[in-house]
Predict the structure.
Amino acid sequence: MFSYPTVNYIGNKEKIAGWICDNFPKDATTIFDAFSGGGSLSYEAKMRGLEVYTNDILKINYHLSKALIENKKVLLTDSDMKLIFEGEPFEGFMYDNYSEIHFFPQECKELDLYRSNIEKLDCQYKKSLAFSLMRRAMIRKMPYSRFTIKWDKVVQLRDEEYSYEKYKRKRAYHNQSFKYHFLKNVDEYNSAIFDNDKNNIAYNDDVFNLLDKVKADIIYLDPPYAGTMNNYFGFYGMIDNYITSEKTKPFENNFRDKKTVIDLFDKLFSNLSNFKYWFLSYNNNSYPSKEILISLLGNYSDDISLIEKEHVYKITGKQNKKTNTELLFFIKNKYFKN
Ligand SMILES: C[S@@+](CC[C@H](N)C(=O)[O-])C[C@H]1O[C@@H](n2cnc3c(N)ncnc32)[C@H](O)[C@@H]1O
């Protein structure tokens, strides 16, 4: 039995992926997870034997899906690990741009070394797996697991004495090395890789560029929710910068802005004719309300179901624990043509 490894993606659907997939019609054999994030839903769908196409605008999420969903059998070996960690840390892109912004200078130099070594791996799946594990290590060292925390706060929270006094937790893992975290997680990631005898594909694009290119029985929509923790570029864009060695731009169609989000949903729904069944994850704390969504969806279907479930999001530690009612819209597309 395979299991989804520890990814810790904000807004992930790991705990309810089984429940979501239980609602999929039995005649569906292919699924497009159009906002795949950390890939938890895609992983569950892959385990259930569906052919899975993933997409996310963030490059690091593409690598996660390339490594865990598209990849059938490529693992990182001991000699790959030797290659990734060999050599002397040097002053590169991370050192120049993120010293004392997100990590200490020596840590940035290590990241620069590991990135250039990952490029030497001879296979795309190995590179994706290595970036996924480096992401895990970076997130583990980062207080609150996201890159929107100011440096003085990072330093304070990485001070183990302070952290213990204030929160009764030392959080020593923030000060363990990237290499330590990478090696600690590699077996878990390697053993999550399997072949479901389907040709699963990972994409990395703005969803609007793919809706007429990808065809599947189901499209699963899990966009950022306006009005909740939704700054994905801020949370993880820095990892894309690490991967590409350049400062990437925030994405435009980000579903964050209350002024534009309704139009964006409408534009999304009007471009889903390739998909017979639409599933949209949503929750009761988001904007627009479920009533507005139902009225928008009514333009495309007269067969809409709304399924509800309590879901506790635990982002990190005690903070941000919030009970939501998780909503799942199930829409049968009346304009679907085979
Ligand atoms: C709620 S998260 C998805 C979580 C995912 N279902 C999981 O289980 O990890 C929303 C995702 O949408 C992505 N996203 C935002 N705008 C996008 C766009 N225009 N095209 C594609 N992906 C986008 C974000 O990068 C983020 O990963």
Remarks:
- The chain is about 40% helix and 15% strand.
